[in-house]
């Protein structure tokens, strides 16, 4: 039984130059690549835990370094696998030339996404952990790969976006240099309202909210005279764009309650219509 198994494993399937390709060699190659991939992942974990976390580098920079190490390890393993089966690298250069024609015709998007992935790795317009908006999609960058980037929305939905979208289109990065953002809350009050009281209440509401930063200080702006309201704006700074909607909702609830308590009217658009009777024309209402 054992002898029969050895014969099967050493059975020559075909020959590449002087090297016999056998099931045993194929198993060796698979073990090399799979084992190398697992080892690469373990090396990344050890480096992150025992080295990179102590350097003070931000999460995005650590991610880029670990990805480049992973790709380097896999490139060495692939080169070793090619050598084991006796392939000539000059012949591979010819194959690569033929493939480049295919890229020119049918694989343009894949090549574009791959090149964009390299640009993102080195230029780092977005990093893992950034809060970004691409088109109408907004969320947190959770993974950057060579072909695509994963964004997890605030509803915990993972969205896979081709890397070329980040290079060719407009991208809003809320946390590129500083996670702090300012949110603006428009407020309209009826004509005749006490504008000083309105300002005082808005600042008090902002100061009492736990997620509103003390510095920079909240501000209230009297923007102008609208068609049916005096237009104000409350501007506050918060520590992260991820809580933007929650803070806006909390402040709106507090503003409505405070204005109701102090009899400050929040108007709605209205029109007064006057009907003028013309001589000889009867008007019925």
If you had to describe this structure to a student in words, what would you say it looks like?
The chain has 285 residues and is an alpha+beta fold. It has 3 domains: 2-87, no CATH class; 120-173, SH3 type barrels (Roll), CATH 2.30.30; 181-261, Alpha-Beta Plaits (2-Layer Sandwich). 46% of the residues lie in helices and 20% in strands. The strands form 3 sheets. A 5-stranded antiparallel beta sheet has the order 6-5-4-3-7. The protein has a 3-stranded antiparallel beta sheet with strand order 8-10-9, covered by helices on one side. It has a two-stranded antiparallel sheet with strand order 1-2. A hairpin with a 3-residue loop joins strand 4 (137-144) and strand 5 (148-153). The longest helix is centred in the first third of the chain and has 28 residues, at 23-50. The model has no long low-confidence stretch (mean pLDDT 81).
Produce the secondary structure layout.
Elements (H helix, E strand, L loop, with lengths): L1 H8 L4 E3 L2 E3 L1 H28 L8 H26 L4 H17 L2 H16 L7 E4 L2 E8 L3 E6 L4 E5 L1 H5 L2 E3 L7 E9 L5 H14 L10 E7 L4 E9 L5 H18 L24
Antiparallel strand pairs: 1-2, 3-4, 3-7, 4-5, 5-6, 8-10, 9-10
Which features would summarize this protein structure in a list?
285 residues, 8 helices, 3 domains, 20% strand, elongated, Alpha-Beta Plaits, SH3 type barrels, 3-stranded antiparallel beta sheet, 5-stranded antiparallel beta sheet, alpha+beta
What's this model, at a glance?
The chain has helices spanning 2-9, 23-50, 59-84, 89-105, 108-123, 164-168, 195-208, 244-261, and strands at 14-16, 19-21, 131-134, 137-144, 148-153, 158-162, 171-173, 181-189, 219-225, 230-238.
């Amino acid at each position: 039984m054992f002898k029969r198994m050895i014969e099967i494993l050493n059975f020559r399937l075909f020959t590449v130059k002087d090297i016999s390709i056998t099931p045993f060699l194929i198993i060796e190659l698979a073990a090399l690549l799979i084992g190398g991939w697992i080892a690469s992942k373990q090396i990344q974990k050890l480096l992150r835990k025992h080295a990179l976390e102590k350097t003070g580098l931000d999460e995005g920079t650590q991610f880029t370094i670990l990805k480049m190490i992973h790709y380097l390890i896999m490139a060495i393993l692939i080169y070793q696998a090619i050598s084991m089966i006796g392939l000539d690298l000059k012949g591979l250069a010819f194959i690569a030339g033929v493939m480049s024609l295919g890229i020119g015709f049918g694989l343009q998007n894949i090549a574009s996404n791959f090149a964009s992935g390299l640009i993102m790795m080195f230029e780092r317009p977005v990093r893992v952990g950034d809060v970004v908006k691409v088109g109408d999609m907004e969320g947190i960058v959770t993974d950057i790969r060579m072909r695509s980037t994963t964004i997890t929305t605030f509803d915990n939905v993972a969205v896979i976006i081709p890397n070329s979208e980040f290079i060719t289109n407009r991208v809003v990065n809320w946390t590129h240099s500083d996670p702090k953002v300012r949110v603006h809350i428009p407020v309209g009050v009826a004509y005749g309202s006490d504008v000083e009281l309105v300002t005082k209440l808005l600042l008090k509401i902002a100061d009492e909210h736990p997620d509103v930063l003390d510095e920079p200080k909240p501000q209230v702006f009297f923007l102008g005279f609208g068609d049916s309201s005096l237009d104000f704006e409350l501007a506050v700074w918060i520590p992260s764009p991820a809580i933007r909607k929650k803070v806006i909702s909390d402040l709106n609830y507090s503003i409505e309650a405070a204005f109701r308590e102090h009899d400050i009217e929040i108007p709605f658009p209205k029109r007064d219509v006057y009907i003028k009777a013309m001589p000889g024309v009867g008007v019925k209402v």
